[in-house]
Here is the input.
Amino acid sequence: QVQLVESGGGLVQAGGSLRLSCAASGRTFSSYAMGWFRQAPGKEREFVAAISGGGGWTHYPDSVKGRFTISRDNAKNTVYLQMNRLKPEDTAVYYCARSQGGWGSVVESEYDYWGQGTQVTVSS
Here is the structure.
């Protein structure tokens, strides 16, 4: 069983930055792509970022491109989400997830393990 534990959420003013971390259990971390999703109150969960197993491929939606950066440290079994120039509309619970394979995906159903989520609140 794979466990994913997010940390780093909190309250920040608009324009500020936060770095989320997601620590994964297991010995084959580098074999799997990882993703970040978020869910705001009353909205469906949405894709935020993905990174391939080796870290050479990343993908973002237009809403966060240029502001958010996903990275990973396979030696530490950890994936990160650096969030800069935060906006009030970035307020959500952020989840990390492990893909079913080494490829990255924007599709929620292609991720099989999920963390418990961490709250990010951006004040205006």
